[in-house]
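Pipeline run #58 for the internal structure catalog. This entry was flagged by the ingest filter as a single-chain record with no existing model, so it goes straight to prediction. Upstream metadata was stripped on purpose; only the residue string is passed forward. Reviewer on rotation: M.T. Logging verbosity set to normal.
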Amino acid sequence: MDSSNESGATDTVGLSMSMSEMEDPEGKGKKKRGRPGKQPPTSNKKPRKSPTDKGVALARGRGKANGVAQHNGEGGDPVTLFEVVKLGKSAMQSVVDDWIESYKQDRDIALLDLINFFIQCSGCKGTVRIEMFRNMQNAEIIRKMTEEFDEDSGDYPLTMPGPLWKKFRYNFCEFICVLIRQCQYSIIYDEYMMDTVISLLTGLSDSQVRAFRHTSTLAAMKLMTALVNVALNLSIHQDNTQRQYETERNKMAGKRANEKLELLLQKRKELQENQDEIENMMNSIFKGIFVHRYRDAIAEIRAICIEEIGVWMKMYSDAFLNDSYLKYVGWTLHDRQGEVRLKCLKALQNLYTNRELFPKLELFTNRFKDRIVSMTLDKEYDVAVEAIRLVTLILQGSEDALSNEDCENVYHLVYSAHRPVAVAAGEFLHRKLFSRHDPQAEEALAKRRGRSSPNGNLIRMLVLFFLESELHEHAAYLVDSLWESSQELLKDWECMTELLLEEPVQGEEVLSDRQESALIELTVCTIRQAAEAHPPVGRGTGKRVLTAKERKTQIDDKNKLTEHFIMALPMLLSKYQADSEKVANLLQIPQYFDLDVYSAGRMEKHLDALLKQIRLVVEKHIETDVLEACSKTYSILCSEEYTIMNRVDIARSQLIDEMTDRFAHSVEELLQEAEEADDDDIYNVLSTLKRLTAFHNAHDLTRWDLFGNCYRLLKAGIEQGSMPEQIAVQALQCSHYSILWQLVKITEGAPSKDDLVALRRVVKSFLAVCQQCLSNVNTPVKEQAFMLLCDLLMIFSHQLVSGGREGLQPLVFNPDSTLQNELLNFVLDHVFIDQDDESQSMEGDEEDEANKIEALHKRRNLLAAFSKLIIYDIVDMPAAADIFKHYMKYYNDYGDIIKETLSKTRQTDKILCAKTLILSLQQLFNELLQDQGPNLDRTSSHVSGIKELARRFALTFGLDQIKTREAVATLHKDGIEFAFKYQNPRGPEFPPINLAFLEVLSEFSSKLLRQDKKTVHSYLEKFMSESMSERREDVWLPLISYRNSLLTGGDEDRMSVTSGSSSKTGSVRSKKGRPPLHKKRIEEESSVEGSWMMLHVYLHTPQMQMSWLGQQKMEEVNRKDRTGINYIKSRSNQGVRQTVRGLMEDDAEPIFEDVMMSSRGQLEDMNEEFEDTMVIDLPPSRNRRERAELRPDFFDSAAMIEDESGFSMPMF
């Protein structure tokens, strides 16, 4: 090469190399040189043409188009190269061979067909004509094609959906590869075809039109890949030729064939010339296209570049696998688009898979290892998975490449909720911890210690890892993560049992108590995973259908674990029966048994041993989790489908008989001694009652009539007021189970009238007891009574008779107003409470934090139980007003529950829901009047908080104004009536006391249709005197503001305004539409955040001044009065639809159904998906020079100093 091509060594595709021996079927070793009418080059190699060089003159063919003979339209056969490739009906090699034949006959016609092929593949309808190409530069031709581009659609062949276009992309790439492969012996060296194609693609890749840029970049990268393959073949043949030459030259003079030496020298020279030519072509593509397009504004284009450079480095590592090319992949690891980062990682995986390439990757690994490790936490899971796999490959190649900190960053991902991430991390953990042992040494050690499995040390290591991870409650996640990579180890239940049962031999460390608990938990999790063959809860999208092979594996594993643990479980229970945690875990195992094995394998003696151990556990423990585990085990073993049922049922009945006799006796003693009862008497009752309650949950114990004694305990506690709270809680729960089992028996059979009357009497008496317990001094008793009341009211509601069960009508209970009021007051007193201790001690110990979380969980359950009563119309909907008004103050704790309640109640009755919303605002307004008096400071944080809550409520009505028009109109009607309800005692010239409420009501004006605004305004005027409309003082501003919001055209509704003299925080909604979302967020935070936080402090629990039970408003709710509003019932009116459509188009603010956010974090969450999709797309009008100046900020900072050549920048 001349000096011009040798400058910038790091830029040049330096094929350091060697060429090859090959037959030249077409040119006999000779190449066509020069073009017609042009002087031959004066130097050995001719530099590539720049993209702005004038194109080669081409002729438009007649009778052929794009290298395929036309058929005059007969039969509809394709007539262009684009159509042939798109349809893909012909073999690609035959299509290319036809084009080559056309090129040999008239290369101008063939090249023009190829040029138009690239133009049409870009989706352009224009055609390059011979006159254009003869008289125009490349840039002018591309500009002309740009003008003829179809701008109506943004789609083009590479982006069009459907299988046809997906196949087209494949055919397009295959055509280019086959074209180069078939032309590699002569045509690509004629300095005509390749010059033309590369010049065209370079120009198109610099176009402002995305379709041209995308298509040409893909074509150029595939062209480069094909040329790299040609260069690799030349290198191989050159090596062969060189060896032949050396061998011949080293022969003795008499045996040396000089003619053969001359032929080998000539062949080597030709191969070197071909190599130089290919090197020139690749440099032109790389410097003219790749170095600009790998940082293109479009992610798909960047991804194409990175994907192909990975192919080049793997295919021809001697030339491309060096720092000059790896730096582009390293920089692009910082790309903001996940698909580009994904291509980078996959390209690197292909390199790190080959261990022979590790020495060449060492410097790259040191430089970019930290970035790769950090990508294991990528926000896009696909990228994170591939990053973990890449780190695993790096670990396999060199364990020293990763530090302990790097490994720990990957370890914790085994607990990820996203299963592919966790499985990839499990593979890494397996490679790091469980694959470095010596199998022979382990087996020899196991034999010396008398054990059947050599995995003892590995299981110990797994236990230590589990304990050190400090995420003990997630053992199931750890097992699931390792299941695919370490399944053999995790199914070694014999080894696990040996470690738990056998005494350690001399020189072996004993398992500590924590290690034993962890190993039992891990064992149970492995059993569950094998028996159920699906991930634990929280992983995956649900149970998938198992393949035949997976199903067979599941059955085999279940049989294996059953046969082993049938014998081992009684021994394990015997050893650990005093430890409640271990026993509770071990008792989970029988639910995964194949119980037929007991009878089929004649293992009844092991069943008796198991039942004996369970009985001992029941008698020894009173912990709830242990007793529930025992009860569940009895329930499973008593299944009627198994022959062992009778044996188990006898054992269970004996146990229940003993416990009920003991319970009846202890209750009698406790009630007789009354206040003189000692701790032993209380313990005897409590311990037996706990056991019976746990068993009553899963077993029908109605024949033992536990309800009677439980009811006696509750009545005695209410009358005497001295019943221990734990006994009261357990008695309530046991009575509840008894009622439910009685209901089950009645619904499954044909109950008599006496049965229904008896059950109704029981339920009625129990509901009365629960209602009395709501005033108990002990909080646990009150909470238990509240939850059971809510559950029973749900069960025995009007839904009980649905589904053809009208005969159960006597069992339906409807709560009276007194009970509803007590339930509501309980929620207000025990759920919506201020926790000052939480705000004061934010840095408490972990136990305190756990207690706070548990307390919050209980309060959420209480609120959810009451909300269900509202949703299912058991408690009157207006009761929800006292819930809705706390939405913003308690958003972090209960926002999701309140929002769901609002959504469900709206589905039940839109109008009544709207009345409830306005009622909640009225209650807050009345509370404010009581605190501040009739002269409200409308600029205060309290008023701003009510207005903000109203605005959030308004957002929940969504965009479909036709569906919500009646509800919104009713809301305005009630609001107007409330505002003018009480006249000012000082006289009619003063504003009504509640007039300021119109400022809150104006937040809903934007949800009215235009014609409804006029109707509501007319209704408003009925309450206004003539003097009111003329008043302009500050105290009348709420009325002025509300009227303005109704008088506007509906496109731009004004927000409430305040006097300039009285407030500097007033705001008016812009007539040009709402501000962009990100600006709006800042404005809302500045105006609302502080004010509402003040409201959070000063708004105390309401005293129900506007109580929904005692107001005349209830009459309005019942009769749904719509007097004075002219509703338009027709929902198909075209004008109305156009009005709504116009509002949707003009409204720049995104409105989401049921979106009620109240802080910066929530607003950002609401719009997160919009931000993610608007990351880097630069304006399409910028040309390449401008884009080069606006370097994307998603690359490493080193990329910012890259010079114009693209290669001379140091990488490290």
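catalog note: The chain is about 60% helix and 0% strand.
catalog note: Residues 1-76, 837-844, 1050-1212 have pLDDT under 50 and may be disordered.
status: ready for reviewer M.T.
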